[in-house]
Amino acid sequence: MPDDAYPYRLPTDSAKLRQNNFDLLRLLFAGTVCLVHVYELSGYQELAWVRNVLSSAVAVKSFFVVSGFLIFMSYERSGSILSYSAKRARRIYPAYFTVVTGCAIGLCLLSTRPLEQYFSMEFVRYVTANLTFLNFLGPSLPGVFEGHRFAAVNGALWTLKIEVMFYAVVPLCVYFFRRFGVLPVMTAVYIGAVGYTIIMVELSHTSFHAAGYYLQLSRQLPGQMSYFMAGAFFYYFFKVFERHTFLFLTAAVLILFMGRLFPGSLVFNEILYPMGLATGVVFCGMCFYLGNFGKYGDFSYGVYIIHFPLIQSLLVLWPGMSPWTFFMISILLASVISVMLWHLVEKHFLLKGSHYRITARQAYAKAITPRSV
């Protein structure tokens, strides 16, 4: 997309856009969600410390911040909407399709129902709903995980629906950016998203029977757009952030501290929180380079989409496992399978100009270059 579509230059010349820690951060966020789910799905009280130390909700919101930064950058660097769409589809759908269909077929072995009852219309509904990102329409498979704390096969996939919707609204957002200005449109979307979340949360307080329903709606779009827009803000105004990093960080620390000090504060915990979190995420991602964690591949996506059914399956296959053994084996298997997903599926669908293909070639060239004595 041409830079002259805006009243300023896009930050295409910053070295930090080429060397950043977002691959590492996404792996940490995916790992956080995995660890919290190990405790929540198993119910082992010996692992309760995980939820006291880590927050899967913060990790997911941080994912949305990173997506806002990187997806808008991807669109601005794409030659057309078709090119942009192809890149997004190549990145997320092959592994997603593999996990959804693999679980649907393979979990027949763990079902309490015979095969003729397993491969039924309920099975078709699960596959159809999940392959189209409508996971809430078919969260479970026949006779699978029915006695568990959560019967869903892959409860982590709800965020993929939101991610895909983010992808879809980016071209529309950019259109309005160019017509009415980036900051006014971002501000309007951000305020609208925060307002929606506040309304849903307030409605949950007024209705006992529908409280869970309203809270679930608050976690859907457009509520999560506040985090997505916060990430996008730091892409479009990255040069401003570079010049005034200390001021942004000071404001972010104040927001997050006041939110903890006053947990009932609407201003700090709802209105300003997405920007405070985004500031911290972007600072960690962009302001001190820790090395090329993407040179061997991006395993974060694999960890995220495979860990939930893996943990559920372990609870069936090895019900008497000690909590710490269960914890370690869950982490090990999620790591191994995510590496396999990357090398057997994901990387083969990436374009030659993909960041991961480029960094892999650079790492290989560096490895085979003879060192001077």
Quick overview:
With 373 residues, the protein is mainly α. It has helices at 22-42, 49-53, 56-76, 81-106, 115-118, 121-131, 158-180, 182-206, 211-218, 225-236, 238-243, 245-261, 266-271, 273-286, 300-317, 323-344, 355-368.
Description:
By secondary structure, the chain is mainly α. It has one domain. Helix content is 68%, strand content 0%. The protein has helices at 22-42, 49-53, 56-76, 81-106, 115-118, 121-131, 158-180, 182-206, 211-218, 225-236, 238-243, 245-261, 266-271, 273-286, 300-317, 323-344, 355-368. The longest helix is centred in the N-terminal third of the chain and has 26 residues, at 81-106.
Shape: globular
**Rg, nearest Å:** 22 Å
Order of helices and strands: HHHHHHHHHHHHHHHHH
Uncertain residue segments: none
Largest sheet: none
Q: How many domains make up the 3D coordinates?
A: 1
Number of strands: 0
Percent range of helical residues: 55-70%
The computed structural class is mainly alpha
Beta-sheet strand percentage?
under 5%
Terminus-to-terminus distance:
46 Å
Overall pLDDT level: 90
What's the number of helices? Answer: 17
Topology:
Blueprint: H1 22-42, H2 49-53, H3 56-76, H4 81-106, H5 115-118, H6 121-131, H7 158-180, H8 182-206, H9 211-218, H10 225-236, H11 238-243, H12 245-261, H13 266-271, H14 273-286, H15 300-317, H16 323-344, H17 355-368
Helix pairs in contact: 1-3, 1-15, 1-16, 3-7, 3-10, 3-14, 4-6, 4-15, 7-8, 8-9, 8-10, 10-14, 12-14, 15-16
Keywords:
373 residues; mainly alpha; 17 helices; 0% strand
